[in-house]
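Now read the record:
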Amino acid sequence: MKWMDIDEIRHFEQLDQSLLKQIIRWSDEAFGRGYLAEEYLQTQMLNGVLLLVKNKEQASGVALLLEQEQADLPELIRDKMNSDSKALYRKSLIVNPNFRGKGISKALNKQISILAKSYHLVYSSLWNEGTPNRYETQLLNEGYIEAGRIDNYWRVDNVSRAFVCAACKKIPCSCSANIFYQLKP
């Protein structure tokens, strides 16, 4: 993976317009049209960081990570964390379709693990479409624990932001999520 560089983007203003448009296009394809709109991404980055993988200056993948308080966690994992610490939520991980299968996701996960060392808990929510998810296997291999399933997980977010779910193709979304977490020492 010597050919990859990973940048941490902590301020929305650091994103140039062409990169922003690429990320939104990948997100539309992966999660549904409108999932990562520009305004939403700008708001989310106030409490988060965007990891950007580049291959010879061409963007090939991105992960949006958000810092959260215990009260903001899904109920399934809320009691796993100390009330005085913060959690890291792996909100989105998107790979440029031209670079899928080339280790981009693995490189992003490695960088997430490095950043996660300063948090008590890291978690991720994955669409549950009734079929095995490749990313689920990757999380389990990295030591994540499956906490359980939450029905209609994206409904409120889906309705408030009016994105068209990539899985069920509906507003409101009726998809469930599997929640995975990892405790850090």
